[in-house]
Design goal:
Elements: H1 4-7, H2 64-67, E1 82-85, E2 93-99, E3 105-111, E4 114-119, E5 123-128, E6 131-137, E7 143-149, E8 152-157, E9 162-167, E10 175-181, H3 184-190, E11 197-201, E12 204-207, E13 215-220, E14 226-231, E15 235-240, E16 245-251, E17 257-262, E18 267-272, E19 276-285, E20 288-299, E21 304-309, E22 315-320, E23 324-329, E24 335-341, E25 347-353, E26 356-361, E27 366-372, E28 375-382, E29 389-396, E30 407-414, E31 418-425, E32 437-438
Length: 459
């Protein structure tokens, strides 16, 4: 019987020998419910112009992600996975790579010894201790977001749907589709009233409880009572997890909403292609909730592409298409604390763990920042991907922490169709890179950078 720490972590000691893999039949674990794809539709806006709508194509076709040289059609959706291991492991460096030639990796979620990966093949793969464990798939919509809540998995898709999956209590390798948000019952019930329809694009209406464009990201409140979804349709929607009800829809921004994070005290933060970061306050309202905009943290020309918050909720970070990472402090009513300058191209994803901040970029690298107060030092630049780093997930490495050296397992998903696994120490630094120390006084000294794409973009 493994002890608790081993059961809930991925230790570097487990990587000592080659991995063996199974090749599960994905369709056998995606059972029970028909996909409600008769509600599917072509979606809306060109990223370059908030007021322009092209009904002849899916959203994202004009996005840098879709036009990038790494975005080629997945060739072998059921090819055997490959695990390659780095024999010379530095303090902060690559452990190995997970490669399954079925599509670009758009989303990751890690919990204990399990890693969930979502791709444009519509598959969600589950890896256990870096061996392929099982998989399941939707009938449409690349997987842009994955979030885990106990035995439930929520996935956000390009087709505007949020799908709900449950882990079978009899066989944890089986994931059954348990529903879609909004539910079919709520769609039929809402469709009776004309007042429930809103205009989503020129001369076209839709129910307010449905997203009319790609679901870009998901987040849960700390008590797991509410799920938030953000979309390229410029709205955020709030769902009550217990009964899957959509409680509210907010027209949050003037362009696609690229990221959302839940903070403390009922605060929610959203980042958009319109160049703003906004703060919303959640208040109870009868049997539901109501949100009010309380603050705008950032206004800029380039798109906000990603958001993250540290574990204590004291600092909020935002990544932008110009390569900058800005941050704000809760203790000072979210006053601007500074900007981290580690990338020249778009920051596509952010994660925090302990005193570390991880920023993944379109230039194929991951910067590891250590925070001490308001001072951020670049410990390492992790290189090895052949395409933009689109998503990150971090788990504590219980098996390798000693002498106060806190270590983390970092997973990075890329448009090169691989997931790389890194071991990172809070006390290590990379001698090959000059430390970049950034404090609050540096906030005004922001140089211009080459942007990943001009104009307003959706990620």
């Amino acid at each position: 019987m493994r002890d608790e720490a081993e059961a809930n972590s991925i230790s570097r000691s487990k990587y000592g020998k080659p991995m063996q893999y199974s090749d599960p039949n994905l369709s056998s674990t995606s059972v029970g419910m028909p996909d409600d794809d008769f509600y599917n539709r072509n979606s809306n806006a060109s990223a370059a112009s908030p007021g322009y709508y092209d009904l002849g194509r899916m959203s994202g076709e004009g996005s840098p992600m879709m036009m990038s040289p790494w975005n080629q059609t997945a060739s072998t959706p059921f090819a055997k996975p490959q695990w390659t291991q780095d024999e010379n492991q530095p303090q902060n460096g690559l452990i190995g790579s997970l490669v399954r030639e079925e599509g670009h990796i758009y989303s990751l979620a890690a919990t204990g010894d399990l890693l969930y990966t979502g791709s444009d093949s519509k598959n969600i793969r589950v890896w256990k201790n870096l061996q392929e464990y099982c998989g399941f798939k939707s009938n449409s919509g690349l997987v842009k977001a994955i979030i885990i809540s106990g035995n439930k998995i929520f996935s956000g898709h390009q087709d505007g749907k949020i799908r709900v999956w449950k882990v079978s209590p009899k066989n944890p390798s089986v994931h059954k589709r348990s529903g879609t948000l909004p539910t079919l019952k709520d769609i039929f019930k809402s469709s009776i009233k004309p007042s429930n329809y809103i205009e989503v694009r020129r001369r076209r209406t839709s129910l307010w409880i449905k997203h009319s464009d790609a679901v870009s990201c998901l987040c849960l409140t700390s008590d797991k009572m509410y799920l938030y979804s953000a979309s390229w349709d410029r709205t955020i929607k709030i769902w009550r997890v217990s009964d899957s009800k959509c409680l509210e829809s907010i027209s949050a921004h003037d362009d696609a909403v690229n990221s959302i994070v839940c903070g403390s005290d009922g605060l929610v933060f959203t980042g958009s292609a319109d160049g703003t970061v906004k703060v919303w306050k959640r208040e109870p309202r009868g049997k539901g909730v109501k949100h009010a905009a309380v603050q705008t943290l950032l206004k800029q020309e380039c798109a906000v592409t990603s958001l993250a918050m540290d574990a204590s909720g004291s600092i909020v970070y935002s990544g932008s298409s110009d390569g900058m990472v800005n941050f704000w402090e809760r203790e000072k009513q979210y006053a601007h604390g500074g900007a981290l300058k580690g990338h020249k191209l778009a920051v596509l994803c952010l994660q925090t763990a302990g005193n570390l901040v991880f920023s993944g970029s379109a230039e194929k690298t991951i910067c590891v920042w250590k925070r001490e107060g308001l001072i951020h030092t670049c410990l390492s630049v992790l290189t090895g991907h052949d395409g933009p780093v689109k998503c990150l997930a971090v788990e504590e490495d219980h098996g390798s922490s000693s002498n106060g050296d806190q270590r983390w397992i970092v997973y990075s998903g890329s448009l090169d169709k691989s997931v790389k696994v890194w071991s990172v120490s809070e006390n290590a630094s990379d001698s090959d890179h000059t430390a970049n120390r950034i404090g609050g006084s540096d906030a005004d000294a922001i140089p211009s950078h080459e942007s990943f794409s001009s104009g307003r973009v959706r990620f």
